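Hello,

Our lab assistant flagged a job as stuck in the queue for most of the afternoon. It eventually completed. Since we weren't sure the result was trustworthy after the delay, we are filing this so someone can double-check. Below is the sequence as submitted and the structure that was eventually returned. Let us know if re-running is recommended.
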Amino acid sequence: MRLAVSTSLLGLLVVAGCSSLPNTDPLNVDVAGIESLPGEGLELRLAVSVRIQNPNDVAVEYTGTALSLEVNGRDLASGVSDAAGTVPRYGETVLTIPVTISALNMVRQVLGFANAGEQKQVAYRVRGKLEGGWFGTRRFTDEGTFDLAAPAPSAEL
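-- returned structure --
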């Protein structure tokens, strides 16, 4: 009998706790820039800047971040940062995360492009998370394409 009452009370507490959690919209994330960093050995290092917009009425505090980058469905780079901060309510911030491209991932990408022929677009996906504790971790994704063939400049006389 005690077990049934304890289990029922525990269930009610869990339901009440979950109902008090805020209903939040996902973060909007866009790649804002990519710059090269000094590499080590056969690795290539990049600083990936992401603009994170918070469309919620509650600030998002984070104590670290992780990021992975895929190009044409293949892993390209990954990185982490222990930087802490806050994305303000109805605000935005730009985070810069150092990522590493291993020699093996570079070879896979080169072979992929060589086998693709005259590929005109490159698909990318950025996945990451802002670490905020047990219930505060927020995951994000951004994906899209960019053109390889830039239009030729017109020459007018």
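-- support follow-up --
The delay was a queue issue, not a problem with the job. The result is valid. The two ends are 94 Å apart (CA to CA). The longest strand covers residues 44-54.
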